[in-house]
Sequence to fold (302 residues):
Amino acid sequence: MKALLIGEYREGKLLDSTYELLGFAKELGAESALLLVGSESQLPACTGKLYLADASACGEYNPDLHKQLVLQAIEKEQPDCIVFLHSSYGWDLAPRVAASLKVAQVSEVTALVEGGYEVGCCNAKMRRTVKARSGRVVLTIQAGAFPVAKQEGTPQLEKLVATASGAVEFVGYEPAEAKDVDLAKAEVIVTAGRGVGKKENVAVIEALAKALGGELGASRPVVDAGWVEHSHQVGTTGQTVNPKLYVACGVSGAIQHLAGMKKSDFIVAINKDKDAPIGEIADVLVVADLMQFVPALTAKLQ
Ligand SMILES: Cc1cc2nc3c(=O)[nH]c(=O)nc-3n(C[C@H](O)[C@H](O)[C@H](O)COP(=O)(O)OP(=O)(O)OC[C@H]3O[C@@H](n4cnc5c(N)ncnc54)[C@H](O)[C@@H]3O)c2cc1C
Fold:
């Protein structure tokens, strides 16, 4: 099995998520080569073949040019799978590559399972296993689903040059609107999940956050229900955080939430379900009704 991994740069910096592609290839047991449109001054910590195109000539993003570069590397490597991150870069480029190759594309892979790839469905409430019917397959992998795998050593460089000019011009990045809370800088975050039950109960979680000198976080359903502002959302479509202490109250541990908080130093989860997936990454899992446990803990801390 051979994999061609497509890493990413953002504003001249190699994205750490590039190493998740290496983690994916390792789990797959695949021999891998990496393709980057970036710069020689920012090479990843990895061994093996690295196809490198210069971002100053090709742009950090340009679908036509980057597709051409990916196709060039495919021609040389003859991989069984071409793997992108499920990012705005990956979800724009992967289908272009799959269409050019006339092969299957499987998006947002969260795990490797016997006989195929696991992907979420029904707004990530369920999982399904899919298998490509074409010999070769283009994949995008969910952020945080596979381990970061840095390697000792230096890659073996082969430079690529794109010749097409492309019909799309990359204009630039636009910073997201300033948030009223910067969770990325918080040392303690106490998060309200759907398990809080109703908007009025968020105050119980806020009181614990205050007693710990931390900030309030929220899972997506809590934000979607209008109980907490989006600026507090943690996860793939919210903020990525790494506090010293993360307390997840009534959060099940869906992959999209974990992607935003699993790098926290110490994780405490409070959940009435002892088998909730958050228990797999929590340092401490308190099996309790949060409406009983959280006020008691807050009172003790006060
Ligand atoms: C494209 C996409 C992007 C997404 N982005 C994000 C994102 O950025 N952030 C995010 O959080 N989600 C995101 N999601 C949604 C994600 O898939 C989950 O649906 C979501 O994280 C679940 O939130 P939750 O854990 O609060 O709710 P649930 O999954 O409903 O879990 C509630 C938990 O509370 C527990 N519970 C219930 N009552 C109590 C009680 N009284 N005491 C203690 N425990 C209790 C339950 O046992 C359960 O484990 C995204 C989904 C998609 C498809």
Notes: The pocket of flavin-adenine dinucleotide is lined by residues 123-124, 193-195, 219-222, 233-238, 250-252, 254, 256-257, 260, 270-273, 276, 289-291 (CB under 6 Å). The CA atoms of residues 8 and 15 lie 6 Å apart. Helices lie at 18-28, 55-58, 63-77, 88-101, 202-211, 220-224, 255-261, 290-301. The domain at 183-301 is CATH 3.40.50.1220 (Rossmann fold).
